[in-house]
Design a protein that fits this description.
Layout (H helix, E strand, L loop, with lengths): L10 H9 L8 H14 L4 H14 L5 H4 L4 H8 L8 H21 L2 H7 L6 E2 L13 H12 L7 H10 L3 E2 L10
Helix pairs in contact: 2-3, 2-6, 2-9, 6-7, 8-9
């Protein structure tokens, strides 16, 4: 079985690649989780996020965005003291802010899934990549979505973070052509 090169780094990457990365996600709770994990990955390695993923899930109430939207200063301080997650004040604040914006998107589009998949008319963008170096770090689509998210009150989601998110949730399929998981 052949995988994208990055997936061979360790077992966590391998499991993530084989079972999640690039597979279409329509469930709002999982979309929110991936959005916040990608936000936290900004400036760090994905390995760090995968190692802390379960800690994030526990710290952020199983990704219940309705609860997260109500986090107060006391909860923010608890999160800042939690060594199991990324203790960055701006990222924690962005996660709370984005939970509120996420709920507003759901109210306007019936689901976040409808909103995010609407950018491609529910189509997957299958890129044809023969080498790892060809994968872009952003695209016209990620720029457009990043701007739209900002207009809708989201923060800490620039074009590169959004592109990673689109790859993670399967809107963009950047598996290498030789990868057994391409389709």
């Amino acid at each position: 079985m052949q995988r994208c090169m990055w997936a061979n780094k360790n077992i966590l990457n391998q499991q993530y690649h084989d079972n999640e990365w690039g597979k279409p996600v329509y469930d709002d709770k999982l979309l929110f989780e991936m959005l916040i994990l990608e936000l936290n990955q900004s400036g760090l390695s994905w390995d760090i996020i995968l190692k802390k993923r379960e800690n994030f899930r526990t710290a952020f109430d199983q990704w219940d965005y309705h609860k997260i939207a109500l986090y107060d200063e006391t909860k923010k301080e608890q999160l800042m003291l939690n060594p199991g997650i990324i203790r960055n004040k701006l990222k924690i604040k962005a996660a709370i802010n984005n939970a509120k914006a996420f709920i507003k998107i759901q109210e306007n589009y019936k689901s976040f899934s409808n909103f995010i998949w609407g950018f491609t008319n529910n189509e997957i963008i299958n890129n044809s990549n023969t080498k790892e170096e060809i994968n872009p770090s952003f695209s016209d689509l990620s720029i457009k979505i990043s701007k739209e998210l900002k207009v809708n009150g989201f923060s800490f989601l620039g074009k590169t973070t959004v592109y990673s998110f689109l790859q993670a949730i399967g809107i963009v399929n950047d598996h290498l052509n030789y990868c057994s998981f391409k389709d």
